[in-house]
Each structure stands twice: as C-alpha cells, then as structure tokens.
Amino acid sequence: MAEKHFKYVILGGGVAAGYAARDFAKEGVKPGELAVISKEAVAPYERPALSKAYLFPEGAARLPGFHVCVGSGGERLLPEWYTEKGIELILSTEIVKADLASKTLTAATGATFKYDVLVIATGSTVIRLSDFGVQGADAKSIFYLREIDDADKLIETIKAKKDGKAVIVGGGYIGLELGAVMKINNFDVTMVYPEPWCMPRLFTAEIAAFYEGYYARKGINIIKGTVAVGFDTHADGEVKAVKLKDGRVLDADIVVVGVGGRPLTTLFKGQVQEEKGGIKTDAFFKTSVPDVYAIGDVATFPLKLYNEMRRVEHVDHARKSAEQAVKAIKANEQGKSIDVYDYLPYFYSRSFDLSWQFYGDNVGDTVIFGDSDPASPKPKFGSYWIKEGKVVGAFLEGGTPDENKAIAKVAKIQPPVQSVDELAKEGLTFASKI
C-alpha cells in the first residue's frame, strides 16, 4: 500500500481539527501540503449541535448546516471547500499506531502517512457504563452521544419508541441537554445522578436549585444521590428497566448516558509528556516532541490568567487553541514570534428556553443575584465568584449579548470587591460599570 507524505497532518475530525484546517488555509497553505485524517465519515462539524438542535422533533439541524466554522459565525467548510483549498480530507480512516520518532501514522487498513508537522486534535471519547462493569450495560437502546452516528441511531430509536420512557444517566452538560431534548420529543423523562445537585463541577447548590426546579416544572423526574448498577432487558435484548443502587427500578424504553469523557491520548502514551490527563503543551500548543502540537480536549496547557496548567474540554477552547497552534507553526517557519495563549475559560449551555454563560474560574465565595425563581415567566439571574477580594468568575442565565460581554469582562479584569452584600444588590449593574 502506497505511503502518503504531507507537510502537515491534522489528526482528528472534530471542532479543533476543522478550525485548524481553516486557519492553515488562512495562513496560505499550498495545495497538497495538508491532510486531515478522521475516523468519522463526514467532514468536521460543530459537535455541540448533537445534543441540542440535531435531536429536535421539528426544525432539526442537519448537515451540511453545521459544518465548521459556522458555530463561531464563520464560513461553513463543506467537503468541497477542502478540495478547493487543496487540503486532503481523509475520512473513515482510523489511525491505530502513531510513531512520533519516525513521523509515521498507520491506519487500521495498513495505510501509512508520513508528516513533517503533526497537529493532534483527537478530542475525547465517552466514558461508558461498561467501563465500570455495570451489568447489562451492552443492552440495545442504551445510547452515548459523541459522534453524528450516535445521534442518528438515537433519532431512529426516538421515532420507534414514540412517547415512551427515557432515563438519562448523568447530571452534567449532556445529561441536562438530553433531558430537555427527550422531553421536547414527548418522552416521560427521569434523570439519575449520584451528586447532591446537577452540574456540580460548575454550579453552586443555589444555581443548580433553579435548573432542577425548572426541569421539575417541565415534568422531568430527578433522582439524586444514586447510580445505575444494572439493566433488565426484553427477550430481544432491548432495555426495559434501569436498576439503581438505592434499590429502585425505573422502566425505560431508551437510556441515554452522559457520565463524562476522557481525552484520546492512547496513541501517544510513552512518547509525549503528559499532565493532568492530557498531553502537556506550552503556550503555543507545542508538545515535548519537536514538530508535534496538541489542541482542544487533549491539551494540558499553561493558563496565563491563573498561572497554572489546565486541560479544558469545551468548543470555545477547541476553536481558539487551533488558531493559536497554526499561527505558532507558521510563525516558527518564518522565524517570527507570536503572543502566548491568553485564554479566558468560557462555558455555555442551552436547553428549553434557557441559556446560560459562564466566564472565568469557579473558586472562592459566591454571591447570587437576580430572579432565580424557576416559576418566573422570564427568569434572569447570575452569580459571581470572589477570591482574595476580587471577582474571578461570573455566571449569567438569560443574559443579552451585551450583558454576557459585561460578565466576560469582569472575569477577565478581576475587579476588587469592597462589600459582598453590595455586590449582591448591584448584580448585573456591577458588571456593566466595569
């Protein structure tokens, strides 16, 4: 089998890979120099759509509508865009071996690819209940959501099990978004998670109380403080019930699991330095191996704002780290320098009529402001995080674009706080004055 050689190879087919391809094109990559290798069968797309509009019963998002880079207001990169730019899009190709010393990637088919510069954009994979040895976790109609294939299979089953019972295992991003979307599809929804409240890595108890109250008003049943320990099936292997650790048994036609992800770094084990579960990089996303860069979910990088190493799993960082790495690669070739990566952590989510944004760091004391009553017709509330007398993080539900920009500015500037009580009273006004 012929070996192919490229000056640049992007390994991965998610958001980071797509944005990196765009940034290479912006920097003037020549035809034939760049390849994108992905195990998925479609060109890179905006992955967040899968747990939101893709699953809507009406007006659902479909490709080619959400190929990158439409999620950040840019041009949609359709498959023909790659052809026009002379970028080789190598799809349905799983790389099973990466030899960084010889700059060679080997596919499951036996095909080999040589590169001068490698950009690792392999992203994350979902954690499965079978990883914990949960009995019956391989039953039919138990779903995980990571790739478009997963979403397509889930849609088929939603149609087949119309108006049935859905159990969502997990109370994080995916759990909350899928709980909402299954309810919109007219399923009887129960959410199960072990923590005392939803989204515990980001939300405080007060913030979580609003979302749990809102979901309850939508008719979603929430069971906290326990986990799924097994599944019962019908004779045809379809799931019929979820067994919980506290002894309860929940009827289920569909189970969707969202219990976290892990970065896909296995191919590079023992070849690159790792830290905090990811591939260690500098502020230009260079790894410990010359000519190898890592971006998006897999990279553990220096977060300048907090002077510490962090790994960030979010679409915003996937996009921005791609741009930084490509700029760094081109600057390196030209003997130029660029600024270090100066990232402000940003997270957001949308479900039902709700939409929240968070910027900064969720450490220290918190103060909540605004209307956080789940029964309000138009709730709008937020929270600030205060550490060492400064606001270091800000959260806002129901904000306008300008208000969201204002809380982002607060998190970046970290203004001092004279009085916590005054801050609670001022609420959004504090942010708009900065």
TrEMBL record:
Q: Keyword set for this entry?
A: FAD, Flavoprotein, NAD, NADP, Oxidoreductase, Redox-active center
Known cofactor(s) = FAD
Enzyme Commission numbers on file: 1.6.5.4
Offer one Pfam family short name for this entry. Answer: Pyr_redox_2
Q: Please state what class of enzyme this protein is.
A: oxidoreductase
Is-annotated flag, keyword Secreted? Answer: no
FAD/NAD(P)-binding domain mapped to chain residues:
6-322
Can you tell which superkingdom this protein's organism belongs to?
A: Eukaryota
Transmembrane intervals: none
Which SUPFAM superfamilies does this one have? FAD/NAD(P)-binding domain (SSF51905), FAD/NAD-linked reductases, dimerisation (C-terminal) domain (SSF55424)
Family under the similarity heading = Belongs to the FAD-dependent oxidoreductase family.
Spell out the protein name for this chain. monodehydroascorbate reductase (NADH)
Organism of derivation: Protea cynaroides
Q: Specify the taxonomic lineage.
A: Eukaryota, Viridiplantae, Streptophyta, Embryophyta, Tracheophyta
